[in-house]
């Protein structure tokens, strides 16, 4: 391996991810789905991929995608969490905040 490649791999492993809460909204039905993730920057691509494949585990979200198409759905960040020392603390905060946002928005889980 070259030193450039080793440096690039090391930088990738050390990158910071941002945990948080997100909402997906349907323009056609006014439905909302709220979820939590350890990586806000990648979750939309992951969800859209599974929806395109017809394999998303949230049946109501998959049904909205199938019925109205991707242009009907919007993705938004609700909240970004501060970086935590441990995954345990981060996960506990995510659970607490996702409950808040689901209640606040009257949303389903995703």
CATH topology tier name: GIY-YIG endonuclease
Number of H- or I-type helical stretches: 4
| Count of extended strands | 4
- Shape summary: flat
Mean pLDDT equals 93
CATH architecture label? 3-Layer(aba) Sandwich
Q: Structural class given helices, strands, pairing?
A: alpha+beta
Task: Supply database-style keywords.
4-stranded mixed sheet; GIY-YIG endonuclease; single chain; alpha+beta; 4 strands; 21% strand; 110 residues; flat
Describe the structure.
- This protein is of the alpha+beta class and 110 residues long.
- The chain has a single domain (17-109), classed as 3-Layer(aba) Sandwich (GIY-YIG endonuclease).
- The chain is 50% helix and 21% strand.
- It has four helices and four strands.
- It has helices at 3-14, 40-53, 59-68, 87-105, and strands spanning 20-26, 32-37, 73-80, 108-109.
- It has a four-stranded mixed β-sheet with strand order 3-1-2-4.
- The radius of gyration is 17 Å and the shape is flat.
- The relative contact order is 0.22.
- The model has no long low-confidence stretch (mean pLDDT 93).
């Amino acid at each position: 391996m070259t030193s450039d490649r080793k440096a690039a791999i090391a930088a990738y492993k050390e990158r910071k991810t941002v945990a948080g809460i997100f909402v997906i909204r349907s323009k056609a039905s006014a439905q909302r789905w709220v979820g939590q993730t350890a990586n806000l920057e990648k979750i939309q691509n992951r969800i859209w991929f599974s929806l395109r494949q017809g394999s998303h585990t949230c049946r109501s979200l998959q049904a909205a995608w199938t019925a109205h198409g991707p242009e009907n759905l919007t993705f938004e960040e609700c909240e970004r969490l501060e970086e935590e020392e441990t995954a345990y603390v981060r996960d506990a905060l995510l659970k607490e905040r996702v409950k808040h946002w689901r209640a606040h928005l009257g949303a389903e889980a995703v």
